[in-house]
């Protein structure tokens, strides 16, 4: 299983000379000043995925998104023309948060015909227009057309809703670039059964991406997930990816992972055999079009042993495609230099019977267990790099995407600082 071909440059990392091979400085994950600049230079200026169109099934469907990283709350809504729009969640009268339920800091969702402020009942249409002012005659020359909700750039790619706080930002598709282009046509819309969970994690947002963007740790950290013989074998092999690709600022890793179904059923736990499912997802592929052949961007090496591709759309979205026919997203929303909200969503073709459903549930809980094992190391890492006793860390060739992530964040913040200095 080990020893896949490396590029002619000698290694994946040397294939991208701008990455260098020297140890990487992790001050970017502990320095509060760096975090503040990252919020301005990265999160306020890039396209951020806030979910999929599934969350807005009909006219008037909406959800709110609390974005501490850009210092605002947004309303995402489907208007009467079925266009998806985003607005700052702020009433134009005196600034009350417009949409929330019991606690103003908690996200909410629902369906409505219009938004009504809880304070003095100003009302806004789904397109953000101010439509009603309580005791309008008491105001002075109030031109309602000037007091609509403040809009935020919002564009949709393959059913993924993105927002951008920068009115000057280039179009989404251009930003997502060739890696996203290669995924177009994947049957995303047919995978409408969603299992989600979220957690607050005590680490910098980049550290959790680090943990997902390399599988070097998998045979070690996750060894308890396999039966003992198999775990020993995997640790002995070590880990090598099939392929890496960088199209800055985004990147991807293509990996083997042939456990769905496993060649030898004794490799996996009894419950996995019983439910025909596990970490790699349900073993039985859904019967839908669009998976055969896969879009060109998935399994780019067209390797027979292919199991999963993970795309890192900068800054904070991971999109994973699994060989058995389902996909997964991770999002990492910073709330402080050493804290973030982690969100994971698994997307399946809706179950046709109880067996399918149980297979999906098992994949979901297996994932949660894995992610907890990862999250567990993150807080331990965060507290120790925060000591600054060691600041530079050697990253190996299978950690190329981490090198790329940190270098990208550092470059963007540096350019922002230089721009501010002039
Ligand atoms: S603050 Fe919203 S109506 Fe007054
Ligand atoms: Fe992991």
TrEMBL record:
Q: Does the keyword Iron apply?
A: yes
* Sorted UniProt keywords: 2Fe-2S, Dioxygenase, Iron, Iron-sulfur, Metal-binding, Oxidoreductase
Q: Give the matching InterPro entries.
A: Rieske_2Fe-2S (IPR017941), Rieske_2Fe-2S_sf (IPR036922), Ring_hydroxy_dOase_asu_C_dom (IPR015879), Rng_hydr_dOase-A (IPR001663)
What the entry lists under Pfam families is as follows: Rieske, Ring_hydroxyl_A
Q: Where is the Rieske domain?
A: 47-163
GO MF annotation, one? dioxygenase activity
The cofactors named for this UniProt entry are:
Fe cation
Q: What's this protein's name?
A: Aromatic ring-hydroxylating dioxygenase subunit alpha
């Amino acid at each position: 299983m080990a020893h896949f071909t490396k590029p002619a440059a000698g290694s994946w990392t040397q294939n991208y000379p701008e990455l260098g091979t020297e140890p990487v400085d992790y001050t970017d994950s502990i320095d509060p000043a760096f975090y503040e600049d990252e919020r301005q230079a990265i999160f306020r200026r890039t396209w951020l995925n806030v979910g999929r169109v599934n969350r807005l099934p009909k006219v008037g469907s909406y959800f709110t998104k609390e974005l501490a990283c850009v210092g605002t709350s947004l309303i995402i809504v489907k208007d009467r023309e079925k266009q998806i729009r985003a607005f700052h969640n702020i009433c134009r009268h005196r600034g009350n948060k417009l949409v929330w339920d019991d606690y103003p800091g908690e996200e909410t969702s629902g369906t409505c015909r219009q938004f009504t402020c809880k304070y003095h009942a100003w009302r806004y249409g789904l397109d953000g227009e101010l439509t009603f002012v309580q005791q309008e005659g008491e105001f002075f020359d109030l031109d309602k057309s000037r007091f609509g909700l403040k809009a935020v750039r919002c564009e949709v790619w393959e059913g993924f809703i993105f927002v951008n706080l920068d009115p000057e930002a280039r179009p989404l598709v251009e930003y997502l670039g060739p890696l996203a282009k290669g995924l177009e046509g994947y049957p995303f819309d047919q995978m409408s059964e969603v299992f989600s969970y979220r957690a607050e994690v005590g680490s910098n947002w980049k550290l959790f991406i680090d943990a997902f963007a390399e599988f070097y740790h998998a045979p070690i950290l996750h060894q308890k997930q396999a039966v003992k013989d198999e775990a020993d074998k995997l640790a002995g092999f070590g880990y090598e990816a099939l392929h890496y690709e960088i199209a800055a600022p985004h990147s991807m890793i293509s990996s083997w992972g042939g456990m769905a179904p496993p060649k030898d059923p004794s490799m996996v736990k009894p419950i996995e055999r019983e439910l025909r499912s596990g970490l790699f997802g349900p073993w039985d592929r859904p019967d839908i079009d669009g998976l055969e052949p896969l879009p060109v961007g998935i399994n780019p090496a067209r390797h027979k042993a292919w199991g999963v591709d993970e795309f890192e759309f900068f800054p904070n979205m991971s999109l994973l495609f699994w060989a058995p026919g389902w996909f997964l997203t991770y999002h990492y929303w910073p709330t402080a230099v050493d804290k973030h909200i982690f969100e994971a969503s698994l997307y399946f073709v809706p179950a046709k019977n109880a067996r399918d459903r149980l297979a999906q549930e098992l994949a979901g809980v297996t994932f949660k267990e894995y992610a907890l094992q990862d999250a567990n190391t993150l807080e331990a890492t965060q507290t120790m790099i925060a000591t600054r006793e060691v600041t530079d860390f050697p990253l190996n060739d299978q950690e190329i995407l981490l090198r790329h992530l940190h270098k990208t964040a550092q470059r963007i913040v540096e350019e922002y600082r230089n721009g501010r200095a002039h």
